[in-house]
Amino acid sequence: MSQARHQGGAHRRTRAFRSRVPLLPALPVLVVAAVVLGDLVGGAGTSWLPLLAAGPALAATTNGPRGVLCVGLLAGAVAATLGDLKGVPSRELAAVLSALAAVTLASGLASALRERRERVLDAVRSVAETAQHALLSPVPATVGPFQVAVRYSAAAAEARIGGDLYALIPTPYGVRLIVGDVRGKGLPAVGTAALVLGVFREAAYDEPDLLAVVDRIERSLARNLGADDFVTAVVAGYPRTGQLEVVNCGHAPPILVTASGALVTVEPTHPAPPLGLRALTGHTPDLQVLPFTDGDQLLLYTDGVTEARDRGRDFYPLHEGLARHAGDEPSHTLDALHDELLAHVGGRLHDDAALLLIRKPTVREVVVPEPSAGGTTDNAVTTASEAAVTRPKARSG
Predict the structure, then answer these.
(1) Which positions ≥6 away from 299 have C-beta within 8 Å?
(2) Can you tell me the distance from the alpha carbon of 113 to that of 310, in angstroms, rounded to the nearest whole number?
């Protein structure tokens, strides 16, 4: 059922394109009409009849085999009628009609092959969409104590999937998240992203220490990646109220937006190599602990955002954009940033781009749960600021 839904979505996109150009299927008929007009206006001694073959030839790109046949029959009937009216010699008229028949048959075959390729492409798109949903699971609007929003755009728009990765999950040790960027593009990058996310989701539940989660990802990549492959990533966790742990492995530094609106770039205190390259340098990442209280936000992103250029080769100013659009709704903030990013590059990105924003709501914005009779543990936080926010689900774009 899911595959049928994806294929139906692809067919709907095709129909939507054709509906935006309503004259496209009728264009071959207009070409035939233009040839008829030219032949009639041209007068004696001028024959436009061979140009009627343009009708069925053009129909192969805009219509199915039946449409091509109809245009070919129309062109043939018109040629026979005009030839009789203008006294075209029978041998010349027969040659024109034979050429029309040959072009119609060839165009009908081409149209059938085009439709077959479109069906195959629709199937490939549906598989890509399914893979994306399996790899980059939709993130709800609230995870633990946080409001969350994600926007993702693959540079290969038709594939809808790329080498950037993200995940945000609640664990026994608090909410944990990762945003990363795989070196390279295409299917190898997608495979590496799937490997990183799989290890992260398992380790995040098993390991009490966030650095141990990073170590497990590093060991897995060291066994499976080539010598020149690596993954830059930021791994973060919220183990206790008011504190956010961050481990940066060669990735773009997150941006902390305080409740007062100040923007702080979270530069690593001791820079560490990307995941998969630790054995070459011997450097291990450090754990940074940040204050993260009510109203604070943290934006994680990939270099497809900060390295996006406009026609003047200027980079997208992420800090300025975030300062303009930061608000109490992470989804609205990322909507504005994503739209502004696409406008900056002229509508199409040249690299995968991911944005993930988490926000700690204030006491006034949360619903206070009823206290349980059996008490609570350290991980079951009952303060109002830790309660779940009742908001709709976020989109991952």
Answers:
(1) 254, 255, 257, 322, 355, 356, 357
(2) 39
